[in-house]
Specification:
Helix content is 13%, strand content 19%. The chain is built from 4 helices and 14 strands. The strands form 5 sheets. It has a 4-stranded mixed sheet with strand order 12-11-10-13. It has a 3-stranded antiparallel sheet with strand order 1-4-14, covered by helices on one side. It has a 3-stranded antiparallel sheet with strand order 5-7-6.
Length: 279
């Protein structure tokens, strides 16, 4: 972890290139107390240590399935139910954190990749075991920005400065052609790419990351000015940072000022988390 000093920063996004329906605005000033946060997302190795110590079963394991991106499945994979509005998501029996693409897959070559198919409930269970917590949404954005003001990315406003790839997102035409120009088709190691100004890696792209807050579209309109912890609603939880499946043509959410949400029991092959703690 790194200790961050906190203080005032500008949170959110008012520009026309975002998603107002996600509640990205209004941009507003938030003041945070000092806190600690992981420089990287929790890896499969770290998550395995938790499971080995506690015998914990994730919700995907309990349900017996999770969502996998169809493009990562082998060509002869049997047909399964797809999400109506996003048919590239397939319900795969036996997909879980140990088997990211289903029973035919494993973690042999992914000890340093982020743990995925982890629900918000699973992430909270891990943090309780580890004596830490999930970051608040405000803490996450402050840390992800790395000290920059008003930028879309942890390094500035240009997605690929000087032609250099700085994150793991979809390259090509979604969802049919991924050129892997950034070096990765699925997840990347948690230490891939350059750190931001605070030493954090992969705060955009790679995997969505759970925050502690409940989600509401108007959360910023009624946010506390000091150490906000989100609204009281409990139906959805905040996700931040985008993933390896984000593409500007349909999901320009690989930004430090973007946000999304899902139910606390949901899991997928592009969702993970990092931890925080009080300073």
């Amino acid at each position: 972890m790194v200790r961050l000093a906190g203080g005032a920063f500008q949170m959110g996004h008012d520009g026309p290139d975002g998603y107002p329906q996600d509640g990205e605005g209004p941009a507003h000033t938030v003041t945070l107390s000092p806190f600690w946060i992981d420089t990287v997302a929790v890896s499969t190795t770290r998550f395995a240590a938790f499971v080995d110590a506690t015998g914990y079963r994730t919700e995907a394991e309990t349900y017996g399935w999770s969502f996998v991106f169809a493009g990562l499945l082998p060509p002869d994979f049997p047909p399964t139910r797809a999400v109506a509005q996003a048919p590239w998501w397939r319900q795969v029996e036996g997909a879980d954190w140990r088997h990211p693409e289903g029973p035919q897959s494993d973690l042999a070559d992914r000890p340093d990749h982020p743990a995925v198919h982890v629900s918000w409930t699973d992430a909270v269970a891990y943090t309780r075991w580890a004596g830490v917590r999930l970051p608040s949404e405000a803490e996450w954005e402050y840390a992800a920005r790395g000290g920059l003001i008003g930028s879309h990315y942890p390094w500035g406003d240009e997605r690929e400065p000087g032609g250099t790839h700085r994150m793991n997102v979809w390259q090509g035409e979604f969802p049919t052609v991924n050129t892997a120009a950034d070096g990765y088709v699925g997840t990347a190691p948690v230490t891939a790419f350059e750190p931001n100004g605070y030493g954090l890696l992969n705060t955009t792209g790679n995997v969505w990351e759970w925050c502690s807050d409940a989600f509401a579209r108007d959360a910023y309109e009624r946010s506390a000015a000091v150490d906000p912890t989100g609204p009281d609603e409990t139906g959805l939880r905040v996700l931040r940072g985008g993933s390896y499946l984000c593409h500007e043509s349909y999901c320009f959410r690989y930004r430090v000022d973007s946000r999304s949400s899902n139910t606390p029991d949901s899991s997928a092959g592009n969702v993970g988390f990092r931890c925080a703690s009080d300073a």
